[in-house]
């Protein structure tokens, strides 16, 4: 779901931009198939999500189950 945190031109996904950085931090991203299409070729994917069953963990190399607003500041 789009929470309007960033302009559409900066969004990653099937209809947005495709990126493949060395390290991709997926914070609070569930891993919808449209988003995965735009970032799954990243070298290392680190995910933070409160849902332990979020699809992002299927592609992440490293994952942290927790609230991003608690994990990231730590």
N→C terminal distance: 25 Å
- Largest pleated sheet: 3 strands, parallel
Q: How many alpha or pi helices?
A: 3
N-to-C SSE series? EHEHEH
Structural class: alpha/beta
**What is the 3D shape?**
globular
Tell me how many strands there are.
3
Q: What is the residue-averaged pLDDT?
A: 85
Q: Estimate the strand proportion.
A: 15-25%
| Residue windows where pLDDT falls under 50 for at least 5 positions | none
**Strand order within the widest beta sheet:** 1-2-3
- How big is the Rg? 12 Å
Helix content: 10-25%
Q: What are the SSEs and their pairings?
A:
Blueprint: E1 23-27, H1 33-39, E2 44-49, H2 56-59, E3 62-65, H3 68-71
Parallel strand pairs: 1-2, 2-3
């Amino acid at each position: 779901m789009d929470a309007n945190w960033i302009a559409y031109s900066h969004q990653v996904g099937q209809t947005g931009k495709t990126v493949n950085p060395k390290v991709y931090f997926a914070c609070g991203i569930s891993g919808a198939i449209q988003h995965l299409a735009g970032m799954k070729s990243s070298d290392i994917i680190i995910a933070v999500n409160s849902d332990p069953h979020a699809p992002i963990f299927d592609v992440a190399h490293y994952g942290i189950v927790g609230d991003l607003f608690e994990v990231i500041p730590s």
